[in-house]
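Record 1 of the preview.
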Amino acid sequence: QVQLVESGGGLVQAGGSLRLSCTASGRTFMIYAWFRQAPGKERQFVAEIARSGGLTRYADSVKGRFTISRDNVKNTVYLQMNSLKPEDTAVYYCAAGLFGPGSYNYYGQGTQVTVSS
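->
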């Protein structure tokens, strides 16, 4: 059974930092990503990282502030979020794919990130 379990969300003031974690089980995934969805808006891509080689890609809105990383031994992907802004407030979802960049087969349940001004 495939599971993606996120943790690390919470309430933080603008300018602060949070680190999200997502632990995967049940399959070996080739690509991991983070998405987010704010109230009333569509789900938005945030960042992705390949299992091997460490190739990463970021949305323009988070470049220079967020860093995605992974620990293949722990099957865990992280999203370090610095210099947070109120517009970063959203439910953050971990995603995992079996084949490669841009294709995701599974999503986690989401973790709430709220940035106060």
